[in-house]
Amino acid sequence: MLTLQYDNILFMIEPFQFAQAAIGKRVEVVDFPDGGLEIRYKGRSMAYRTLDKLRRVSEAAVLENEHLGGLLTLIRQSQEARATRAAYQQRTEATRSSQPHVRNG
């Protein structure tokens, strides 16, 4: 099956023998001013169907959902705490390595 993503829309090229030759190859998408589209391979037009618009979710839309917004906040706090602990450990190790080592005995 030959699929193509263009302008956030997924297209499925009808499975004719000519279309099979286009798998893995570069095709041309002609976007006409009237809104029409044509998909071509080696100058020949190929029949297609539109499958679905690719959906993108903005963080603002996710934050509007109370459950997901709360979960994202919890994850962010956990990541910040982990980063703070890692920075503290690095400073502690750097301080230890810069101090002279003294042996008794």
Structure description:
With 105 residues, the protein is an alpha+beta fold. It is built from 3 helices and 6 strands; from the N terminus they run E-E-H-E-E-E-E-H-H. It has helices spanning 17-20, 59-64, 66-98, and strands at 2-6, 9-13, 28-31, 37-41, 44-46, 48-53. The strands form 2 sheets. The protein has a 3-stranded antiparallel β-sheet, with no helix packed on it. Strands 3-4-5 form a 3-stranded antiparallel β-sheet, with no helix packed on it. A hairpin with a 5-residue loop joins strand 3 (28-31) and strand 4 (37-41). The mean pLDDT is 75.
Number of domains: 2
Given as residue ranges, the uncertain stretches (5+ residues, pLDDT < 50) are none
Output the helix-strand order: EEHEEEEHH
Mean pLDDT, nearest integer? Answer: 75
Radius of gyration, Cα only, in angstroms?
28 Å
Which word captures the global form? elongated
The total count of strands amounts to 6
Largest beta-sheet details? 3 strands, antiparallel
Can you summarize this structure?
With 105 residues, the chain is α+β, with helices and mostly antiparallel strands.
Short key terms for the protein model shown above:
single chain, 105 residues, alpha+beta, 2 domains, three-stranded antiparallel sheet, 3 helices, 27% strand
Write the layout of secondary structure elements.
Layout: E1 2-6, E2 9-13, H1 17-20, E3 28-31, E4 37-41, E5 44-46, E6 48-53, H2 59-64, H3 66-98
Antiparallel strand pairs: 1-2, 2-6, 3-4, 4-5
